[in-house]
Amino acid sequence: MSGLLPSRRPAAVAPRPLAEPPVVRGLLILVALAYLGLFLVMPLTAVFAQALERGLAAYVAAVTEPLALSALKLTLLTAAIAVPLNLVFGLSAAWAVAKFDFPGKNALITLIDLPFAVSPVISGMIFILLFGRQGTFGPWLGEHDIRIVFAFPGLALATTFVTFPFVARELIPVMQATGKEEEEAARVLGAGGWQTFFRVTLPNVKWGLLYGVILCNARAMGEFGAVSVVSGHVRGKTNTLPLHVEILYNEYNFQAAFAVASLLAFLALVTLVAKSFVEWRTGRTTTSTEGRSNA
Amino acid sequence: MSIEVRKVTKRFGDFVAVNDISLTVPSGELVALLGPSGSGKTSLLRIIAGLERPDAGQVLFEGEDATTRDVRHRGVGFVFQHYALFRHLTVFENVAFGLRVRPRAARPAPAVIREKVMSLLKLVQLDWLANRLPSELSGGQRQRVALARALAVEPRMLLLDEPFGSLDAKVRQELRRWLRRLHDDIRLTSVFVTHDQEEALEVADRVVVMNQGKIEQLGTPQDIFDHPATPFVMKFMGSVNVFHGRVEGGKALLGPLAVDYPGHPHAEARPASGFSRPYELDLGRHEGAGGGFWATLRHVNPAGAVIKLELTDGGDSAIQVEITREQFEALHPKPGERLYVRPRQVRVFLEPGEARAPSE
User: Fold this and answer.
1) Burial of A293 by CB count in 10 Å (0-12 exposed, 13-18 middle, 19+ buried)?
2) What is the pLDDT of residues A34-47, one digit of tens each?
């Protein structure tokens, strides 16, 4: 891809016209590194340092305490629901947008971005307004004894809502770039719908898909705002890891708070490693658009 | 297998891509759909393939209605303009695809598939590239893989959409001769779409010239070239000089030209145009018999098998003339010189639309 660019400089014919003086270059690198250290490395080290402040035993105790374990379980469970849902939704939305023309297509693309646009707190509020006791469906749900808000379904709903753009956003450009000729070729050659999907469509988008899933998962596990609104903070019942960290912190139990936080940080690091692997594998150099934060 | 298209219409929104077209392709023939972009040729091909549903009309294979038959069951081999090879599969797997996706009962054994694919790759002279990915091939090689892949399912007809459109001139030349030979060998009913008149005339048994969703003319390459049916075909089949004017009383008066036109013996005038190809014009220094006119030589392009000259008679469009090298050397004209232009042949067409005007 980059082979088109002149990779070799003309040897010592003339100084490169656009080369910055070494001082400027050094300064730029220094600024970037300092920034990185100040805002990324230092906090991350601080998390792990604080977590291990009172030794490994205290760390293990904080992490394996029943409430922490239940929060971890809840977090993983929420992600296990939100990610597959958004995988299916993202695939079908991207498919629809990329392969078909229909009225309201642009509206759909805009709507997909909605969860990115609104504050997570508002995302949480939406579900309170819909399913809370005073909400639209509140009375009906109360009659049938179904609890959504302040219970696990609410957590899953809010998390799914907040994370649903990731897969679709990642796939739409990939699918648009592939076009539909290969699918048409498969059909002409006699492949059925599912055969076409599994043998042609999916292999073409698999790395983009995986990338989207990783980002989606990172956000699902780290989501705080929306989850905080719908959770009700019932310890051991509706507390996810980020919420658990907050509670511990508010109780001045810093060491435990950081120990649990380090778990989240660790999950995030694993995700990042997986993400870089996928990026390296796809050889994407320019396509990682929209500077997104994850976790 | 013969293909018949009956009164087929296809619209995209307000745009009529294919307008009430009927066409028959006899079994074993190689037919070219020729036209400029937007003429509906690709839409027609895709309708035959079943990739597009017509809004009206029928498609028949061997006399049997196939209009609503799914693409998968039409038995067509389709070659896409941009190859549409499966980019994650090797050349071998691309060609094997159509066999592998068959229902278990109809699927050949792996050894049979292997043999079949390799023999097809041999046919397209690419057996040595079986394990490469499409991205590692040149354009011409990809196109041949696409062809092998289409043939692997033993289609009853072959449909090709601008098969050589995205190749460079030399490869295009080679491939189209090769396609012609291949067709002579396997005699598979084939339809291919092109916007290149040279390609259509060189490769096809019969050519269908299309414009604005309609068929302008249908005939053998020689027919089309020697007897263009409409001004559009005339213009589309290569550069041509146009003389605007009128016909009246059995004569066509076309600017500087006057020729007989017995088709319109009536007294009242009708607007008309005369067409002469650059090589149908003679140049001389003397006024001869038959209507001709004087023009000034502006430019000479001596590179090529024929000499191309550009003249002006004061009108707004230049007059293009092609003469042989021998003629050029005998005449040896200089730019700026006045020469006598005498057409050997002028084809006169009444202006379209005028047919509606009451003439009698």
Assistant:
1) exposed
2) 999 998 888 888 88
